[in-house]
Design a protein that fits this description.
single chain, alpha/beta, Rossmann fold, 9-stranded mixed β-sheet, 6 helices, 9 strands, 21% helix, globular, binds S-adenosylmethionine
C-alpha cells in the first residue's frame, strides 16, 4: 500500500498496470473478450470487491492505494477502468458532482458505474454523522439525457442502466417495493407523496459512461 499522487505528474500519468485489478465479469462496451477487465472499488473499506483495485483514505482498511476521494484528480489516467464500484461511499463525500465527473474521467467509454447508497428516508442515512449527502432515487438525473433541467451542472454524461430501490421489510412485504421498482411513474409518486411513511432503505444504481 502506498500513497500515490503526491505530484501532479505522478497523478496524471499513473497507469493501471499488471493483473492486480484484472477482473473477469464485465467489459466496457465494444472491447474484445480476451482483454483483462479493470475494476476500481472506491471507498473499498475492508470489503473490497473481488479482483478490484481498492482505494480508500483509511489505512486501516488496507486499500491497494491510499486516496482521499475529496481531493482531485484521483491518481489514475483517463479511461483506465471498465467498471467502478462505489458501495456506500458517495454519501460520505464533500462534492458528489465532482466525484461523478472523476468517475466519468476514469471510465472507458461505455464503462459501468455501480453506486449503492442509503435512501434519505432510511435511519442509516442520518444516524452516521460522517454522511454528508442524503439522496433519493432521482439524485443522479443531472448526468442523464434530460439533465433534470439543469444540464449546466456538469458536462459528464451517464446513461442510467438501472435503478433499484429497497424499502423497509414491512413495506416490501406489502408489495410497495415491487411497484416502486417496476413502474417509474410510481417511483416518482412514491418519492413525492409517500416516502416519509413508506420509507426507503437503500438504492442501487447502474450507469454507463457516455463519452
Ligand atoms: C460505509 S464504508 C463502506 C466500505 C465498503 N465500500 C463496503 O461496502 O463495505 C465507507 C468507506 O468510505 C471511505 N471513505 C469515506 N470518505 C472517503 C474519502 N473522502 N476518501 C476515501 N475514502 C473515503 C471510508 O474510509 C470507508 O472505508
Amino acid at each position: 500500500m502506498r500513497t500515490v499522487g503526491s505530484t501532479a505528474s505522478e497523478r496524471r500519468s499513473a497507469k493501471v498496470s499488471g493483473q492486480a485489478g484484472a477482473h473477469r465479469e464485465v467489459h466496457a462496451a465494444g472491447l474484445p473478450p480476451h482483454m483483462p477487465i479493470f475494476v476500481l472499488d472506491v471507498g473499498c473499506g475492508i470489503r473490497k470487491q473481488p479482483g478490484a483495485i481498492g482505494i480508500d483514505r483509511n489505512p486501516a482498511s488496507h486499500p491497494d492505494v491510499l486516496v482521499d476521494l475529496d481531493k482531485f484528480p484521483y491518481p489514475f489516467a483517463d479511461d483506465s477502468f471498465d467498471r467502478i464500484t462505489a458501495i456506500h461511499v458517495i454519501e460520505h463525500l464533500n462534492d458528489v458532482l465532482r466525484a461523478m465527473e472523476e468517475f466519468h474521467r476514469l471510465l472507458k467509454p461505455g464503462g459501468t458505474l455501480r453506486i449503492e447508497t442509503p435512501h434519505y428516508t432510511d435511519y442509516s442515512s442520518f444516524c452516521d454523522p460522517t454522511h454528508k449527502n442524503h439522496l433519493n432515487s432521482f439524485s443522479f438525473r443531472y448526468f442523464g439525457p434530460k439533465h433534470g433541467g439543469f444540464g449546466y451542472y456538469s458536462e459528464a454524461r451517464f446513461r442510467e442502466v438501472s435503478v433499484g430501490v429497497k424499502l423497509l421489510s414491512f413495506w416490501k412485504w406489502l408489495g410497495f417495493e415491487f411497484l416502486v421498482n417496476h413502474f417509474p411513474r410510481y417511483r416518482r409518486f412514491w418519492e413525492h407523496y409517500l416516502c416519509y411513511i413508506v420509507r426507503g432503505k437503500a438504492m442501487e444504481f447502474e450507469f454507463a459512461a457516455e463519452k
